[in-house]
Structure formats: C-alpha cells, structure tokens
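User: Predict the structure for this protein chain, please.
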Amino acid sequence: MTPPPNGERAIDPFEAFNLFTYDSVLILDVSTTPGPLLPGSTRCDERRPLLESAAAARSWILDDMPPDDAKVALLLCEDSDAPRAEIVSRWLIEEHCRRVVRVSRTTMTAGYPFLFVPSLHGLPPYPNEIVPGELYLGSAATANEAALDDLSISHIVSIVERNLLPIAGRTHKLCQIPDTDEAELLPVLKEALPFIASALQDGGRVLVHCERGASRSVSVVCAHLMLTDGVGLHDALAHVKAQRPCAQPNGGFLRQLQGRDVQELLRSFANEARTAQGKA
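Assistant: Here is the predicted structure, written as structure tokens:
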C-alpha cells in the first residue's frame, strides 16, 4: 500500500472533536451511505465520480459557507469507505490543502451526537478534550451548562483571579491566582492536582479552565500530565498544544514547572499514589 502523503492521517474521534470545535475548517463527508452531517459540512454525492463529487462539494462549501482555514480539511467516512477517504485526502493534499485528517463517522456520531445539529449557532463553546473521556481544558466561556451536560463533565477547576460561583450539579474547586510571571503556582498545584486525581479515580470528568484557557489552566493540566504520565514539561505541553493550539503558559509558570519546588511536589504526589495503590 502506498504510504499516506505528508499532512494526511487518520485521527481519533476526540481529536476530530477538538479540531471541529476549535477551528473553522473544510469538512466533507465521503461516505457512500447517507448519515447525519456536522454543521458547515456537506456530502460527496456517491452517484458521481469520486473526485468530481469531492470537487463539487468543496466548491459548494467555499461559495456558500467558507471556513476560516480551507487549507485544513476534516473528512468523515464509514469504515468501509476508508479507501474513498484516502483518495480524496491525496487529492486535497496535492492540490488544495496543507493538512487533511479523517475520522470514522460512526464513532463520531456515537461519541459526540450533540455536534450533529443543523447549525453552528445551536452549539455552545466547548472545551478541548486533553485526555479522552477524562480531562478537558478551556476558557471560562466553556464552563457553560450546555457544554458540561454534553460532555458529562462532573468536576470543574477554575484557575482565575476573580471569585466564581460553582455551577449547580458540579463539584467545584476555585484556585485564585493572577496570570503574571510573579504569581506562585505551587499553592494552586497543591490544591488542584489532588482534586483532579480524586475526581478521575471516582470516574468523574474534569474541566480545568482559566479566563482564556491559555496559561493558568494549561499550567495545571501540564503538571497533571507530568505527574500521571511521567513526562517532562516539553512533552506535556506538546500534547496539550496538539489539542489546543493557543496553549502557552507565561514565562514564570514555565520556569516554576521546571523548578525544584514543583518537581519535588510531583514526586511527592507520585509516591503517595504508589503507596495508595500498594495498600489497595
């Protein structure tokens, strides 16, 4: 089999969810059977030659509802139609796009049925899914009831400077800190990381947010990944950025995450977790 061209690959449903909710991109359904459509997408007519149909579908989207970034494409297809998706992917990469990703329509509709609505206006702001089915990251706007209900989020960590009231029906942890280089991250991590770990251990889903979802909340999520996955800051931040490109802790937080105090705290939490597992 010919290897896929650079910029083309299959992705997991949570990655497709993040791409769809974060960016405005070209979306085509290349399945041969009718099915629900994501808002802003269209189907390639299976009665016409494949690339002719794909070209017509692309032109229709660009004329009627052009995405912000038409150089990135998301293809949906049934598993049996994967060869069709690969052909369209190659054509798009060769002629129109710098990046093309494809995902199973069946798994998308099963995991994210709430996305398949007639209009984008019917969707709330969603956070990005960092650990599938467990950990979410976003701005303050994503801590809305509709998004929390759709994603079955049970716990919220708010990393902000202002006071915030908890949302009814969710367990809430408020960690108040400004987004400045001089702010002390360690006290926040001492509160937030055990809260996240306990929620996940109990089968909950956790949203970590700050105001923009770029610095404070990203720092906490990176620390969680460093703790649970045993990775360094570089790898943790790269993972987060892959799902939320605006992620960028301020310089002070980056220095602290690599500093001795935070590293000692993470080692302490890791040792406590191992001890608890040994007693279980």
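The chain has ten helices and ten strands.
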